Amino acid sequence: MNPDHAALLALFDREMREHARPDGPGVRVERTSDVVRQVGAADDWNGVVWSAPALDPARADAVIAAQVAHYAALGHGEFEWKLYAHDRPADLAQRLLAAGFEAEEPETLLVAPVAELSTAVELPHGVRLRTVRDAADVELMARAHERAFGSDWSRLRHQVLARLAEDPDGFVGVLAMVGDEPVSSARMELYPGTGFAGLWGGGTVEAWRGRGVYRALVAFRARIAAERGYRYLQVDASGMSSPILQRLGFAALSTTTPYMYRSH
């Protein structure tokens, strides 16, 4: 990794993980000497976002067991350990698997300086972008997401509605519309007190893929991030979106894999 990327990864780890802030209303961040974790209601994101670089093999299993016990005591049957490729100890992934966690698809951690990204929004004919304003727009986001990804949006619906109602300055939702139909949706999470904003979503229904809608959504959100003074955009990118984002100027800094614990 080149020195600039190493410094940017260290900044990300410090601001977004070690000093993580709650990602929405009604959730809290808890810190111990070993981990930083988020705790909320069942429909919120619950999980470990950071583990201490000094976590050594002799103590790692006990720390993992303590997190399982902590969430179980709160009545949570499911939580995530968000593991990054550079986390220590080097065999932490194997230890999580041995403790009953299940690995989901890895994603690439991408970061770009906002000032180096294009903010020119170029859309195919017939498509327009607009921000999400109310609960009806959230339903349009849900429809686009479910058509694009084929997955249930009920938990995200809860989180987005809460952000829109209680923390609208920390969230931007965007719809790509053709007439009255949503063909893509995306969101941006703003993290006050850090230099980072996060891009999420961006799934486009099949008939409109390959026409530049995803790139337009990135540019639209980059422009808003620049206007609000954020220095970096961060994405946990799938294999489909990672090549597009790297062509737009994002750098791959690490990979991140969700390790899910589900009590049975």
UniProtKB/TrEMBL annotation:
InterPro entries: Acyl_CoA_acyltransferase, GNAT_dom. Transmembrane segments: none annotated. Residues 127-264 form the N-acetyltransferase domain. It comes from Streptomyces gelaticus. PROSITE patterns: GNAT. This is N-acetyltransferase.
